[in-house]
């Protein structure tokens, strides 16, 4: 059986682990202090800027709305451009015979549409013959 001293020595952290723990603790405390200073600076800046924001709000609010709308428009245009390029690339790959994702669904849908069109054409032809026979009678 192991003695208590041997068990304590086996479970005790190594020097490397102790140094890592001290470094992590020091870094954590430093980051916590920086977070507190940032929060304090933000509150002080907001308190100092509030009168200016109130005075200039008739100008700032429409400017902020305009900036938001411009940014939203530019982001939308960029997104639509990327979507269009992606669609063009997919169509190019499909037409050139490569097998892009979803091509089998497009082929299946095309065959279903062709089958339905053929059925409608046949029914229209049959109905045309029926109408001609009724007109002749």
UniProtKB/TrEMBL annotation:
Q: Does the keyword Phosphoprotein apply?
A: no
Transmembrane domains' residue ranges: 21-47, 59-92
Per the record, membrane topology reads:
Multi-pass membrane protein
Note the superkingdom of the native organism: Eukaryota
Q: Which InterPro entries match?
A: Oleosin
Family membership: Belongs to the oleosin family.
Q: Name one Pfam family in it.
A: Oleosin
What name does the UniProt record give this protein?
Answer: Oleosin
Which Gene Ontology cellular component annotation is one that this UniProt entry carries? membrane
Q: What are its GO biological-process terms?
A: lipid storage; post-embryonic development; reproductive structure development
